[in-house]
Amino acid sequence: MKTLKTILILCAGFAVATFAAGRLDAQDLPHYKRVVKALSSARYQGRGYARGGANKAGKYLEKEYRKAGADEVTLQPFTIDINTFNGRMAMWADGKKLKPGVDFSMREYSPGVHGEFPVYHVDTLNFDADKMFSDLARPEYANCLVCCEFWFAYRHKEAFGRLQKAGECTNAGLIQTWTSPIKFYKAYGEKVVDKPIIWVTPEAIEGVKSVRVDVDNEFLDDYALFNVIAKVEGERHDSCYVFTAHYDHLGNLGRRVWYAGANDNASGTAALVTLAAYYVRHRPPYDMYFLSVSGEDANLRGSEFYANHPLVPLERIRYLFNLDMIGDNNPVQYCEVSDEGLRGYALFERINAEKQLFQALNRGELAANSDHYPFASRGVPCIFLENQEGDAFPFYHTIYDTWKNAVFDSYEPVFNLVTGFIARY
Ligand SMILES: [Zn+2]
Question: How far is the CA of 266 from the centre of ligand 1 (A)?
């Protein structure tokens, strides 16, 4: 009996210590993996805009938050104008068929493109803009695609800007070479430019004299998306903690190819669901909001909308945590912190050192690169956590960011870092 009593006291003591320290429970990691796997599955078609994948994933999240026991779940609708590639997606280089998502993809704001085109390769070693334009005036290059490395074109914006505008040059459009495997860089085409821009890997286009292209685009006006906001009530209601993670991703590139986005950002999205479940089991000191936003890959549209229409005034946010791409294994954890969040940053560093979570935190310059930014720019204390440069990082915005290639190492230390922070801030 005495032994049993001792065990009970020890157990109670352990439970209290666990709560105070803010450490993940045994069920959290399997739960996390289940949600990452579901969100990365074919059912959600890369959580894009053209086939309703993002909205289907939003409905799934609503259910998951309810299952987790959240006190309230709110769907917050908003609309975007967006360019998508949901139809034909084919390309041949000197007769050889290229693979969408592997050899080529599209700039997000490109129009569709159909036909046979000569290719003009820019001489980047001895570049002379005047010479390029006089070459392009020759009849054999009328209606050509001008091919050049992306960063080179970026550095010579003036000349290459002219090649994108109607009426400036007789070229039909541009081919930009970039990394291999090819990235589908962004899906934020909120406009469509005059001439098509195709991303191709350097290997697929090297020495190629002509290409045939058959690519459809579809511009969606006022396309309806929604944020999913779960609330877990704490002991106090006068202020709150907020977690953000975007659940949308790049969606489709043509009819067959879709981008699973296991790391970007099924990882952060699944972490929010498990954090909500955790705080239902361990009631927090303050109200908690789990804000799963859509429209991130369309220029932070969902978080921007929420910041303009918050459920509770932004001044009442004690701290906001944005998790975007935490499915990786770099022992050094990247983060960005708003000016108002710097006082809390010292505590993050202390907790990280005491609990030996990551080798170090690496704080970078605050940028408009994810959903913390609309809050940081409005004076909300916040941190953005993204695990960069690990094994999953090369898959960023490629078709290889899949469940099969998912990495889970950074989930537990991120979880313990934020819950440890909330226990002490
Ligand atoms: Zn992301």
Answer: 9
Question: 378 and 262, same structural domain?
Answer: yes
Residue 80 CA to ligand 1 center (angstroms) comes to 18
Which of 187, 215, 243 is the last residue before a domain boundary?
215
Residue pair 198/145 in contact (Cβ under 8 Å)? The answer is yes
For tokens 């954090």, name the residue.
275
Last residue of a domain, one of 215, 250, 269: 215
Q: Is 274 within 8 Å of 31 (Cβ atoms)?
A: yes
Q: Is 241 exposed, middle or buried (0-12, 13-18, 19+ CB in 10 A)?
A: buried
User: Which tens digits make up the pLDDT trace of 322-362?
Assistant: 999 999 999 999 999 999 999 999 999 999 999 999 999 99
Distance 355 CA to ligand 1 centre (A): 27
Pair (235, 309) in one structural domain: yes
Q: Residues 233, 210: one domain?
A: no
- With 0-12 / 13-18 / 19 or more C-beta atoms within 10 angstroms meaning exposed / middle / buried, residue 132 is buried
- CA distance linking residue 164 with residue 157, whole number of Å: 10
Against a cut of 0.85, is the pTM above it? yes
